[in-house]
Amino acid sequence: MSIANDTDAFFTDLAEDVLINSKYGKGLLEQPTAVALNGEIIYYDYRLYLKQTEFSDIKTGDTVEINNIRYSVRQVDVDLDGKILEVTIQKT
Question: Alpha-carbon distance 45 to 40, whole Å?
Fold first, then answer.
């Protein structure tokens, strides 16, 4: 079984519980990336991967809660096959 063809396996084994717009689901959270300007860190961005079928209505400005920590959605991108959302979030 290829993980590229079975997103359910990907999200079942590796994902964390997320709450977005009063809807629970599973998501994969990557550790933060520092965004710097002139050598000074401006903010940290996190990347969250979600199933498009579960969270198709997510948008910039929405609140995401993972492990009782709140994040704000900065950007939402859809991967090439349209099955996974790549969401950039920032701690609030």
Answer: 15
